[in-house]
Amino acid sequence: MSARYLPPMLPASPRFWLLKSEPHVFGYPDLVRLGREPWNGVRNYQARNFLREMRAGDLCLFYHSNAKPAGVAGVAQVVREAYPDNLQFDPESPYYDPKSTPENPRWSMVDVAPVLAFPAVLPLDTLRALPEWQDSPLIRKGNRLSVLPVTEEQFTAALAAAGVGLPDIPARRLSRHQRTASAARQSGR
Q: Tell me: the pLDDT tens digits for 66-89?
């Protein structure tokens, strides 16, 4: 089986993220099997705000937490931007939020798809040793956020340490409306 799954389409200025998941709950192989999945159940306001900042085409390091070894298992791509997390409205869900309503949802999710599986998990200890990762919240004790921004340098260093590279990534062709919206976001309007 090939390690590559989805030819990514990048926005003009992609951003990079790290998504944490416990592999016994939902691991990178599960994402590969499903092909596309909502990243739901996030119940931390800072992590939720990061989800809301994500744009279609952004790339994510998929991190297996609470595992031996903990580390990056692959790369995913945001394929749908933030929208209300449906689990917040389900009283049977452990992620139910009785204060959240469809008119005023508190929690968001994005959809992600697999791009590239690493040949082996890139351990946290290896990330700690990389100069590019020294200022990352991931390697600081006590950081429990499940969604974190990473720099392009951190993203590239992780790929190099894993011995992988992404396939050629063409810039995403944006419609006139998308170009206008993107330009407005970048100018702060």
A: 999 999 999 999 999 999 999 999
